[in-house]
Amino acid sequence: MKKIFSISIAIVLMFSAFTKSDGNKIPSATVKKLDGSTTNSNTFSNNGKPMIISFWATWCKPCKKELDAINEEYADLQKETGVKLIAISIDDARSSGKVVTDVKVKGWKYEVYIDENQDFKRAMNVNNVPHTFLVDGTGQIVWSHNSYAEGDEEKLFENVRKLAKGEKLTH
Amino acid sequence: MSKKITLRFLLIFTFSLFFNKYNAQTETDLGNIHGNFQIDAANYQRDTIIKADPGSEVFRYNAFGNINYTKGGFSAGARFESYNPPLIGYLPGYRGSGVPYRFARYKHKDIDITVGNFYEQFGSGIALRAYENRGLLYDNALDGMRVIFTPRNGVTLKGLVGKQRTYFSLSPGVVRGIDGEINFMELFDSLLGKSKTKLILGGSFVSKYQQDQDPTIVLPENVGTSAGRLAIIRGGFNFNAEYAYKINDPSYQNKFSYKPGQAIIASTSYGTKGFSIMFAGKMLDNMSFRSDRNATNTIDMINYQPDLSKFHTYSLMAYYPYGTQANGEVGGSCEIQYKVKKGTWLGGKYGMDITVNGSAFYALDTMGINASTDSIKHLKYSTNYGNVGNEFYHDINIEITKKLSKKLKFTMMYANQFLNQSVVQFNTLDKEEHPDVSSHIGVLDITYKYKSNSAIRFETQGFFGSYNYRDSKLDANGVKNSTNNTGSWISELIEWTPSTHWSITIADQYNYNNPIVAKRVHYYFGMLGYVNGPTRISISYGRQRQGIFCAGGVCRFVPASSGLSLSISSSF
User: Fold this and answer.
1) Structure pTM?
2) How many domains does chain A fold into?
3) For tag attachment on chain A, is the N or C end more exposed, with fewer CB atoms within 10 Å?
4) pLDDT of residue B379
5) What residues in B contact A60, CB-CB < 8 Å?
6) Predicted ipTM?
């Protein structure tokens, strides 16, 4: 068993070195809007402009730091690149009631959905929050990043700008 | 799980990677292969000072990998899992390896069919929630089939049948459920689509079947739970409520009481820019619902009884956490958030966030039914819904976050908590061993961002506890001590993120006034983390204090441990 385990580690390390989450379209899952209606994630679109999809939760401090940091520049970035941010909350019944109050108080201008059954989280292979994805104008997932450290938003902005211009992205 | 199957799985795993590459390069529509994995491994050591003893199995790990294939409306996937043995603090029953999760799903227009394993939630989950939390190793996926039918916009019907996952096998009971939800605004789009008030009604029925093999008592083999729910939303205003009723369901958990179960959960909130207020309340009476009446821990739970206490992320705030009392409780919470405007005296240049939160939970006011009243003695107890019993827990806290400059921001937090730990965490009335805990807890968290992508964070926490043994006598030395009186704690943490890829954390928790002098020890901890895109790797070394983790309405004790840990996670 130990052998198999070490082989699996080796395989996993091998391909983590060369895989990028690219080439995949946004998978299909049912998510809930804040007004209680449902929508399918494969209908997310932004008229050919890039999209940011950010997984967060009301109890996740780094998630809220990241969304706050993006919010400060969001209006300018939208004007410049036409980008749209879709925030997906993974809160369950314990805290899903706080999603709407958090969004209102913070004045986030994002498109917010609740993924209460975590179907979309599973379909997007998210292990932990925050996890942020970039989607290009054709609906392909071209970049992703797990966790948040101060200043990470700069890298995201840089990549959004590159994506809007059709340039290559960096991690 | 034989080695052969495991190897075959790994082969498919490897093959899929090349397939993925090939697919990306040629851009033909062969569908997509994607997935994720996580490995947490630890090499434990014996640490006599904190009484950490890993036994003879010093190397332990939790590992899993998902592979999913998607093409149009079709998707299929599997998860390989391995724990030989699981990390300290996880249920030992998970020892082993296998593919406990695999599914195929097809969605086309108004129909969505899944065969194999799936997760599902009806309403708030009080009737049914098949859920996973990989970090907590909580997984009660159903194995069977599910159909979701959306005959028209605003109407959703669900039907399912299956057996629940129980470690690497399945529960002896069968779960069957139906659920319907109508969103009136979506349904009558032309008439009400423009209406500002949204109304949603839903209802579900869930039943389980388990054979009665008890030679002495008659146990109900089919147990049903019905639930109804309502949501009203208008602008910043939200109201949600759900009521559930369960017929008699004697189980190990409820000490084989035949009393029917009831639950009501409701919340209402109002939010606008800069201000919000939320109230939530619940009453649960004998609503534990499991597909195996003898199951314990987080195993075979069909429903979810949500905990409404605040989800604390600072470790000392969550040192004595609350967990829903599955046999019965009543309580509620309230939270107010206020954002002080920029440019005011308090708000300064960047504004200031204030959150006040309070919650309290009590036992139900119950009375035991004694043997003389024969006809109803099997109910075991009766409940007076007009009153409440002993306090289980309260938590009143205030959190202030303020940015002082582009470089400097801080969070301050204070909490007053009470926990009836004998009942809530250890299911006993023994106050000698498990005294009530009252505490004052403070946190100061400062982040200094010295470059655009480099920062240092300092965190100081203090936990000042007082322990009440009720009628206890002092010991020979004139002090009261027991394993669950740990006195007070202070905690210090420094986290340095020199670049967006790296982080270094050093922390120490000091149990400076434990009543037992020999236990006044430092819990040192160090961690090096690396992040690149979706991949995260961390190595840590140090001591972990004993603690309680609560999930899904069940709290479990995690013993102290000491050693070296490695964690890798990624997705593709």
Assistant:
1) 0.89
2) 1
3) N
4) 85
5) 313
6) 0.89
